[in-house]
Amino acid sequence: MDVDFLDVFQTKHYVPRLKQLFIDTSAWISENYTSIQYSFTDAIDNVCKDVTELQKNSLIPEISYLCISFLFTSLNSETPQFQIDCYSEGCLPTGKSLYSKRFDASWLTRYIEEFRENLINDSKKDGTINLIPPEQINIFVLRAVRDLLFYSVNIVKYFPDINRAKNLYIMSKSEEFWISFGELGDWQRIVFAAFPYIDIFNCEENAILRFRSFPAITYRKKTFSKLDLTHSVFRDCTFIDCDIDGCIWNDCTFDNCTFKEQ
Question: Are strands 188-194 and 173-183 parallel, antiparallel or unpaired?
Fold first, then answer.
C-alpha cells in the first residue's frame, strides 16, 4: 500500500472521524451517566459477592487486585464486554486470574460501527476503496477503540459507587487493595484503591502515594517535592511553613485542613 496515501487518508478522514467519535461517546456517557455507573458498580459488586462465597469454602485466598479489561475479541459480537479478573497478592495481573466474570461494555463502543461505516463511505467517495481494504479499516477501528479505552480511564475512575458495592467490603482483601481498568494483559490504570496509612516523609522512594488517606497530621516546614498524590485525602491536617514543588494533586482532597505561615 502507498504509505503516503494512507497518511493522507488518516489526516483527511480518520482524525476528524475519531474526534467525532469521542464527542458522540462523551455525550452518550454524560446523558446516561447514572445507569452506566450503576451497571459498572453492580458488576464489581457481583464479582465480590461470588468471590466471598468461594472464600467461605476456602477456595480462593484474599484478593489484592481486581482488573477490569475490555475484551477486543468481543468487539464484533452483539454485546461487547469487559472482563473482571481477580488476583491475589504477588500474582501479576497479566497471569491467570483466580476468578473472572464478564459484563456489558456497549456504552464504550456505542458509536464504533457508525465510525467504521463512515470510514468505508469516505473511501468510496474518494474513489479509494481499493486502496483502503477492510483489513485496514479494521486496524483503524481497533486503534480508535484503544484510544477510547485510554480516554475513558478519566471517566471510569469516578464510576465505582463504593456505598452501592457492599460486597466489596465483605470480600476478604489484602491490606493493599486496588481496582484497575485497561487492556487485558497490557496496560492498566488504578481507578480505586484502599491503601493503609503511610508516612509521606518516611517511606520507600517508590511507594505509591496515590489514593492514600492522611488523617489529622501536622506538617511543619516540610517540602512536598515531585510527589504524585492523585486521589489522596488530607483530613484535619495542618500545614505550617510548607513548600510545594512539582507535585501532582489531581482529584486530591483537603478536608478541613489549615495552612499557616509563621
Answer: antiparallel
**Of the residues 188, 220, 249, which one is the last residue of a structural domain?**
188
Specify the amino acid at residue 241: D
Amino acid at 63: I
Tens digit of each residue's pLDDT (9 = 90 or more) over 191-250: 888 888 899 999 988 888 988 999 999 999 999 999 999 889 999 999 999 998 999 998
* Domain extent for 170: 3-188
pLDDT band at 1 (very low <50, low <70, confident <90, very high): very low
End-of-domain residue from the set 188, 217, 233: 188
- Whether residue 111 is found in the same domain as residue 229: no
Q: Are residues 9 and 106 in the same domain?
A: yes
Strand-strand pairing, 173-183 and 218-220: unpaired
- Which candidate, 70, 36, 49, 31, places its Cα nearest to that of 158? 36
| Contact between 196 and 180 (Cβ < 8 Å) | no
pLDDT tens profile 55-91: 999 999 999 999 999 999 998 888 999 999 999 876 6
How many domains does the structure of the chain reveal? 2
Domain identity same for 67 and 116: yes
Cα–Cα distances in angstroms (integers) from residue 180 to residues 69, 177, 183, in the given order? 8, 10, 10
CA angle 202, 247, 90 (to 5 degrees): 55
| Phi/psi of residue 238, nearest 5 degrees | -125, 130
